[in-house]
């Protein structure tokens, strides 16, 4: 999304993380995971590090705010999304029964911080898409998925009744042209999600 926002051409290569390619192991021997950016063959790993590199390297719309305080706040919320929000939402989406009820409660508590952060704003940074919005991309595309396949997860994690600001943000974000063109296909998300659910159930037996 950051490269699209900047208008930078790139080659996208998917990785099978169950059968990691020699290139991934070569260029990211420490973590052995994606995402990985290879500008001129020089590897850069970790999502937030990559986003800041893109912003500092190429011209175009800024991803980080210009004011030091606003930049610090953007980094704070981006880290919150990666370290708190994503794990909590993942647990809620991957668990079942009583465990899911508890996980939903924990996820709701975390997501409410994002809901409050969006009060009076179109995007997390104000009127334009920035670092926090791109980091929160997973919320936007998974929310679309669960809206369409609502029978998969009951009760839904994010609803307009509980999180009106966040739902409005999802709508505004996913309707930006460069975002809409590059969101994951819903059938692929369904296949991925159901595969992980089945694997989790098998591991619990």
From TrEMBL:
InterPro entries (alphabetical): Glutathione-S-Trfase_C-like, Glutathione-S-Trfase_C_sf, Glutathione_S-Trfase, Glutathione_S-Trfase_N, GST_C, GST_C_Tau, Omega/Tau-like, Thioredoxin-like_sf
Translocase found in the keyword field: no
Domain GST C-terminal: 67-192
Highest taxon, organism lineage: Eukaryota
Keyword Transferase appears in the UniProt entry: yes
Residues of the GST N-terminal domain: 1-62
EC supergroup of this enzyme: transferase
Keywords, ordered alphabetically: Transferase
Transmembrane segments: none
Enzyme nomenclature, EC number: 2.5.1.18
Pfam families linked to this entry: GST_C, GST_N
PROSITE patterns: GST_CTER, GST_NTER
Catalytic reactions of this protein: RX + glutathione = an S-substituted glutathione + a halide anion + H(+)
Alphabetical list of Gene3D superfamilies matching this protein: 1.20.1050.10, Glutaredoxin
Protein family per UniProt: Belongs to the GST superfamily.
Identification of the protein by name: glutathione transferase
Native organism taxonomy: Eukaryota, Viridiplantae, Streptophyta, Embryophyta, Tracheophyta
